[in-house]
Amino acid sequence: MANYQFLGEYEVKVDTKNRIALPAALRKQLDGIDQFVISRALDHCLNFYPIDAWRDVEAELNKLNPFIKKERDFARFVRGGATEVSLDGQGRILLPKRLMNYAEISGEMIILGNGTLFEMWDLAIYEESLSIDPEDFSALAEEVMYSEPEKESAPVDPAIVVPMVRR
Known about the structure:
The protein contains six helices and eight strands. It is α+β, with helices and mostly antiparallel strands and 167 residues long. The strands form two sheets. Strands 1-7-8-4-3-5 form a six-stranded antiparallel sheet. The chain has a two-stranded antiparallel sheet with strand order 2-6. The longest helix has 12 residues, at 134-145. It is found in: Cytoplasm, Nucleoid. This is Transcriptional regulator MraZ.
């Protein structure tokens, strides 16, 4: 199981041949990895996985039942268009045109670390996704990150427990 903790935001430009140069700080986090998979993501962006992290995704997708429509559709969405890419000698990758169209990536994009993967966004779409009201974000954070601690019951001493008898 891949164990990455990628982080950071990196603005990059797409060249006329649909290539992007990965910034040195991002490549440093990759620590020599040069094989990746790019796939559609759920939020109108692309997911960019080191190949071993993609294999973990594949293992989870393989658990889905192809005879259940929603599971088949989900696997098709994630796998559809998934493309293996490699870094070239200049630290660049070629973005698949079909995936770029899906995410509406044009000239400027942002790559951001998100745990075991990087997300690739069109810069304008990403900026729009961040335009959440601070109070709304606070409520979201509370809902997602906070859960009531379970109340622990006091240990019961069997010597003082009085059994209930029904008559």
